[in-house]
Amino acid sequence: MKITKHTVDYVANLARLNFNDEEALKLSAQMEDILAYMDKLNSLNTENVIPMEHVKPVSNIFRKDMVSPSFDREQILRNAPVKEDGAFKVPKIVE
Amino acid sequence: MTIEQLHGKLISKEIKVEELVHQYYEKIEAKDKDISAYISLCKDNAMKNAVLIQERINQNKDITPLTGIPMAIKDNMCTKDSKTTCGSKMLENFEPPYNATVVEKLESSGSILLGKLNMDEFAMGGSTENSAFKKTKNPYDLSRVPGGSSGGSAACVAADMAVFTLGSDTGGSIRQPASFCGVVGLKPTYGTISRYGLVAFASSLDQIGPITKTVTDAGLVLNATAGKDKYDSTSSERNIADYNEYLKKDIKNIKLAVPRQYLASGISAEVKDSILNAINEYEKMGIVCEYVDLKLADYAIAAYYIISSAEASSNLARYDGIKYGYHSENYTNLIELYKNSRSEGFGAEVKRRIMLGTYALSSGYYDAYYKKALQVRTLIKNEFDKIFETYDGIIGPTAPTTAYKIGEKSEDPLEMYLGDVYTVSVNIAGLPAISIPCGFDSHHLPVGLQIIGKAFDERKILQIAYAYEQQSSFQGLIKEAK
After folding, report:
1. How far apart are CA B88 and CA B152, in angstroms?
2. Domain count, chain B
3. Nearest-CA distance from B342 to chain A in Å?
4. What percent of chain B has pLDDT over 90?
5. Which residue, of B90, B155, B247, B336, is most buried by count of CB atoms within 10 Å of its CB?
6. Catalytic site residue B381?
């Protein structure tokens, strides 16, 4: 699979990352290399094999809907880089 | 000294907890400027705790095998109100509002936390060179890597700068550094130790485990840290009172499998010799060792890097520069804030994995990569299950080489990934495995023997490892680092 600079830009946007031209070029070569290696999986017949997301069968686990103490607002906000009036502060989203 | 030995001295009051903790900080002071295993120390807290724990010993109250034992943990386990960096600039100043379950458990066992240990950023890497802060050196040769990602945890025990440490293992990150540093590293069955408060990398593969000087010590740490946790719904309900229960049981009925593929191409001649010697030692004990095929061994790395990168790309989406972590000052709108914070906060390997994972999950490629890898995962698990119908354990090398030079592999990501050839399939199948020292190469660098067990059969792999450790001329291997 050819990984073009266009592909890198497309995936970078999905992943919310930026790369300059030099980085993107290097990354496209590395990704191409790694994905070419991964293509060896295509030599295995996996028809009708059930994909396993998890070794332990997992399903939703529900707890009783009861009120219990949770974190203090100040404590949670302590690590926030920008905050105001007891809330996370973000750039304006809706005009 | 080991946990076992120190426990005796603490209980008989031959040594006081404060003295012991003080001695360890002196060793750290003397050695860590060369080794760089620690990211942070918590000396004030540790000295305070030492006094309280000594009180407990004096009153003979709530004493466990770990009471008063100085230890340290990898810096991806949350410690309340003290820095948990995950080896990343992204979390350089992050002070979690809560303790990881393992931290709570170790605290209640009475062990004393000395500090937090260096690691590859977000546990992605095999040499600890991907840390944003420092490069940890191998205590056996300071020009070489300690392995990774739990390189700080392994180097710390090898240099005796803590009696034991915790690491985390997503694709070999406990076992491979244990192998490179000549110590014991145990990756328990998925779900054995709660992951609550472990910074997530690949949630279906991540598992915490001990790094220790002896097999017995590994079991003791497992006893103190394993168990069901209501904060981790994947933690197992199984309740095993003593993981060391089988250590001294007769070993003669054990049957071991040796995968041919683990001793074929790609392994260094000296590592292979050490492993063949170990197999020979087991046979001398009367244990049957038979060659088997693990045909999918060659596909495990490809499947692993797709699955782990896909999960990582999803897990690391939480780092947005808003709630906690690195925040770029350079933005005019929300998307720019996300992109710039993430691009400035993450290192090259983390970004590479996020890109690979995002690609493998993206529309048009999901079936070809992610779904395919999950199907191969099923096949790999089935192949292991089949072997365990006949055998009690699988033995082979932990890593294809001994510790390599710093900088030797850091420019080629794929070459670095190939070093995980014997470890990743264990995580893919959720099995327990231990690495124990089994020899030296001609550079006097340690070689690790890996023993893989059935799910939740830690007691048996500890027994198999212990049998080797007892007869091994390798006793006393843990030399003090220069």
Report:
1. 14
2. 1
3. 6
4. 96
5. B155
6. no
Q: Is residue B306 part of a domain?
A: no
User: Any chain B CB within 8 A of the CB of A91?
Assistant: yes
B310 is a domain residue: no
Hey, which residues does B288 pair with through a beta bridge?
B255
Using CA atoms, how far residue B372 sits from A38, B131, B360, in Å, is 10, 31, 10
Range 88-127 of B in CB contact (< 8 A) with A: 93-95, 97-98
- Is residue A88 classed exposed, middle or buried when 0-12, 13-18 and 19+ CB atoms within 10 A define those classes? middle
Question: Does A57 contact B at CB distance below 8 Å?
Answer: no
What ipTM did this prediction achieve? 0.96
Rounded distance, CA B392 to CA B345, Å?
Answer: 45
Active site residue B173: yes
**Inter-chain CB proximity B358 and A14 less than 8 Å:** yes
Q: Residue B151 domain-assigned? A: yes
SS3 content of chain B, % helix, strand, coil (to 5): 45, 15, 40
Domain that holds residue B440: 3-253+431-471
Catalytic residue among B111, B127, B149, B168: B149
Domains of chain A by start residue, with CATH: 5-43 (1.10.20)
CA atoms within 13 A on the CB side of B103: 23
Residue B8 lies in a domain: yes
B323, A80 contact by CB (below 8 A) = yes
B374 to A76: CB separation less than 8 angstroms, yes or no: no
CB count in 10 Å sphere of residue B374: 22
